[in-house]
Amino acid sequence: MTHTLVSLKEIEAAAVRIRPAARMTPLIEVPYPGATATDATLFLKCENFQPMGAFKIRGAYNMAAQLSPEDLGRGVITYSSGNHGQAVALAARELGAKAVIVMPTTAPPVKVEGARSYGAEVIFAGTTSLDRKARAEEIAEQRGLTMIPPFDHPMIIAGQGTVALEIIEQCPTVATVVVEVGGGGLSSGVSAAIKQRNPKIRVVGVEPEGAAKMKRSLEAGKPVTLDRVASIADGLMTVRPGDLTFEHVREFVDEIVTVTDAQMIGAIAWLYRRARIVVEPSGSVTTAAVMLGLGGIDPSRGPVVAIVSGGNVEAQKYAEYITAG
Fold first, then answer.
1. Residue 211 to residue 232: CA distance in whole angstroms
2. Which helix or strand (DSSP H or E) is residue 132 part of?
3. How is domain 8-55+153-324 classified at the CATH fold level?
4. pLDDT at position 36, please?
5. Contact 80, 151 (CB under 8 A)
6. Catalytically annotated residue among 7, 9, 45, 56
7. Catalytic residue check, 56
8. What does the domain layout of the chain look like in residue ranges?
9. Could you confirm whether 81 is annotated as catalytic?
């Protein structure tokens, strides 16, 4: 089954729609990891500076803002490992709607507390994305709530793609964009915007080695479900990419690479020391790939932008990471 890909026009419309809720995050310049040339720098797109600490507010608000007053009146629901749940909770609060967030029993407390702080009801269900999806669908039907899915929806993809429009505006000569891959919402939106604006820009997606669902799916030629996932990157632990996000990644992303937990920890520590920013494991995978030179990432080809997708991490775990790295 083929799906209609999100257009540049839809992403540009989303950029206007999300202005009340999402920040235009800074693009900061830091020394390129391991570079010998003094003029080599890395650009970091700091989505960890969004109001709820991650890029997810873009897609969540873009979809919620397009719901009818009747749908908003009944309330919204989603299933999330954490950041999308916080984003839906915040978007719902801003639009005057009630929100229910179904999270895994293993969700980091900082993300659970974040969703509750925006007024959402949090319900726990299992440990996998399929567990929480099934529970959320059941509750949605029981209560008449509108589902705001975490990644596999054109409005979500369009919202996430607004990151790329900002990157092109902030760094017009960008040659390579490095983006995390979880369920595929961010990588789909970013790559769709990039390639429809300038197909010469290289897009490299990065997954945890222990949850390489998109890489496996591309090799199989269709979305596949992993038997198990294991990684410190809780935000990228989806066991299966979306059908729509798979089609976008297959069409627009040049290469998918993987990094280990140890490499993520090294990147978290490097970002703390060299950029002075707090990054969660899911947000560190792009910098880890840059540090390793994976996927043809090379500053000699032109400016490299790594998207730092989020910074919601437990203080104790963060201390462990920056000490170990």
1. 10
2. helix 129-143
3. Rossmann fold (3.40.50)
4. 59
5. no
6. 56
7. yes
8. 8-55+153-324, 57-147
9. yes
